[in-house]
Each structure stands twice: as structure tokens, then as C-alpha cells.
Write a structure and sequence with these properties.
By secondary structure, this protein is α+β, with helices and mostly antiparallel strands. The protein contains 17 helices and five strands. Helix 3 runs parallel beside helix 5.
Amino acid sequence: MLDLVVSIDEQVRGFAGDFLRLSSERLQVVTAYLAMKPPAVEEMAAIGDFLLASDHQTILSAAFNGDVPEGLRRALRRIGPSAQDRRCYTLLHQLLSRPHHESLTACIYRLSSIARSKLLIARMLPEAICRANVVEAITDVSAATDVTGAFEQLVSRGVNANDLAGAICKVRSESELMNLWHRWLIKLDCPPNPIPASSSFTPVRSGEELVSLAKRFRNCGARYLLPVMAGEDAMAVMEHGGESAMVHLRFSEGRWRCEGVYGPRNSPPSSALREALYEHLERHNVVVLSASRRKPSEWDSLRRLMRHRMLDFDFD
């Protein structure tokens, strides 16, 4: 853009100096014209005189062939003092002229600053969450794709769309937006467990139950919240002889398998509970891996004594 300004200045003395002293709005009006209608060499003198003498509306009308949507000047002002490429001005004009929904134009007018990346993000968001603060909490287009997908997925799984949109529209930073998803994922019901409930076997039915169970057993079961909701894992509680344990199942290679069984603080359950569990699982066609039925070893004493150290990641 500066090269073009210098070339025009060679034909219209003082054009470059005037250009550099323009207000943000005037600079963007002139830059939008030059980006949309870059002049040929033989046109530069006439275009330079036109840009110096004409008002904002006339310049924009010439740049966009008479189609100047309401609010374009106000939006250009928010781009600031830096020139953008043609794609930014084209997209801004397109979104203001033919918005997908009313929330889109309102969002653009409220952005603290406008850049092509923000316009792309705003265009991608569903109407219910297309808000300036949401756009500014999203780092890039890839993240906007994820936000849209996450919103639609949670709604498809039964979350109230208005409630979720209301929560998203309150975020003020990227960290607030990232933390929001876990809170709403907890509200979901789990997919059906591969094993029905019985007097000794209780499937986890919701995200809230999983979090509660992880607190009860004081383990990291809550970290499996997403794979459980995705139907990749399943959790349950097995009770036998006055003892209870957390059961972790995983769907792999077309079958459900026992990934592990854990007592409080990941302690190993008694052999009696494990054997009762394995028999119950096998009756329901769940694969019990041989590792789950590891034979007693002379290392078991040390294994039990050191299990807390195995979970301690401070290696200093």
C-alpha cells in the first residue's frame, strides 16, 4: 500500500504527506478505495486529486460501485491506523451488505478493533453467540470452528441452547471461554453403559455423577469426562462384600474392555471383588484383559507400598 501511495505522490505532489497525516477514519476510507480499485499508472494523477478533494461518502461509493452499506464508515474507523489488504475490506463490505443475521452487524459495530481474522470469526459463530466479546475471546479461525462445533454438540446432547448461549455471551477472556466447556460438559447425561444396573453394579449416568464419584474415590476419574460423554469410555461402581470399587471400561476394536478397577486413592480392590467383577463383566461380553488378572507376584508388597510414589510426579 505504501508503494502505491509513493507512486501516486510522484504524480500528485504532497499526496504521501497528506496520507500519513490523515485521521484513522479518512485513512481507512482512502485505503479501502486503493485496495478495491488500485489505479493504473496513467490514472494515478487523477485518482490522487480525487482522493484529496472528495468526501468520505463519495470515495466509498466509487470504491464499492455505489453500494455503501450503513455503518461502513463507522466500521472502517475501528480498523485503526494500519492499512489492510483487499480481502479485509471486501469481507467487511460483504458482511455489512449481506449479513447472515442481525447479530452479525451488531457484533461488528461493537468490536474494539477490526481485522480480517475477527471478521472471519464473527461470520463463523452461530447467531446466539455472535457477540463482540466472544469474538475477542477467540484466538483464531481454528478455535472459532471448535467453539461452534462444541456449542452445537452440547445442544444436540440436550443442553438448553439459550442457557448455554447466555453463559458463552458473558465471557470476557480466552481463559474464561476455555473453562466454560468443562462446566457445561458436566451437565450432560452419559451414553448408555454397556452393562445394565444391578444390585452390585451401578453405571455412572451423568457428568455430575462422575465428578462426584472421583471425589468419593479421591482419584482422577473426572479426567475421563470427555471420553465418557463421547462413548469411548464408561464408568461404574462395583460393590461386593461390603467393599466398592470404581470400574473403568473402554470401547476398543469393536468391543468393550475392562481398562481397570480401582479402590479409594487408586488402591487395588480385594481379589474377591475383582473376581466377582470379572465374572460379571464376562457375562455381559466385556473383555477382561489378562493384565487385569495379573497373577500374584513377589513384587506385590513393594507395589502396594510404593503406589502413592508412583502417582507423585515431583522427581526432584
